[in-house]
Amino acid sequence: IPVISAEKLPDEVNALRAIIESNGGLILNEEQPKTRELSYEIPHAVAGGKRTKYENAYFGWIKFN
Predict the structure, then answer these.
(1) Is the pTM of this model over 0.90?
(2) How far is Cα 34 from Cα 36, in angstroms, rounded to an integer?
(3) Which residues 6+ apart lie within 8 Å of 28 measured at CB?
(4) Cα 8–41–59 angle (5° rounding)?
(5) What are the residues whose beta carbons fall under 8 Å from the beta carbon of 33, sequence distance 6 or more?
């Protein structure tokens, strides 16, 4: 679910990096998340039984050892 705003995205990425590094992981490479159009809509039920369809999502990766 794309509930993270673009302004808060760097904070979330840094939190993930911190979790990896605090557990002894070494960040080898990464690509910051970017919004990408999905190949098809993803329906998701949220509170109250309302169904929402998502056409975009963030995609990024972290390679660590």
Answers:
(1) no
(2) 6
(3) 63, 64, 65
(4) 35
(5) 9, 13, 58, 59, 60
